[in-house]
Each structure stands twice: as C-alpha cells, then as structure tokens.
Amino acid sequence: MKSEEELKEEHKVQVDALNKEILKLTKQLGEVNKSNKKDEEELRKEYKKATNEYIANMGSYDLDVNNQTIDNQKCQAEYEDTAADLA
Question: CA 77 to CA 83: how far, in whole Å?
Fold first, then answer.
C-alpha cells in the first residue's frame, strides 16, 4: 500500500500534467477561434457578394423578360392587324 506522501506526489504529478494539457488545449482553442473568426468573415464577405450578384442578375433577367414580353405583344398586335387586313 502506498504511503500518504507517495499518493500526494502522484496527485501533484497528475495535476501538473493536467494543467499543462489544459494550457495547451486552451492555446489551441484560441488559435482555432481566431482562425474560424477570420474564415467566417471571409465567408460572410463572399456570401454578401454572391447575394448582391444574384439580385443584380435577377433584376437584369426581369428587365430582359419584360422587354421581350413588350416586344412580343407589339409583334402579336402587328400580326393581328395584318391578319385582319388580309382577311
């Protein structure tokens, strides 16, 4: 059976090892958080850019479709007038 002194020494060694591990992991966590924050900022910028491009493209598409619809309606009206004249 181990003496009280030996148990205290083992306890101290284990606590010291655990404290070293805690410090190491805390440092790693800080580095990961810093890296993730930087990555998140970059992703947010890219997302905002993509969203703005999407909105601009949809606006352009809507305008193009609207113009084509108007042109189609004009052509349809001219066709109907011509067809009526020929009838």
Answer: 10
Euclidean distance between the first and the last CA atom of the chain, given in angstroms as a whole number: 118
**Residue 76 — φ and ψ, nearest 5°?**
-65, -40
Instruction: Give the pLDDT of residue 20.
Output: 98
pLDDT tens digits for 9-57? 999 999 999 999 999 999 999 999 999 999 999 999 999 999 999 999 9
Task: Give dist(CA 73, CA 1) in Å, integer.
Answer: 100
Q: SS in 3 state form for the chain? A: CCCHHHHHHHHHHHHHHHHHHHHHHHHHHHHHHHHHHHHHHHHHHHHHHHHHHHHHHHHHHHHHHHHHHHHHHHHHHHHHHHHHHHC
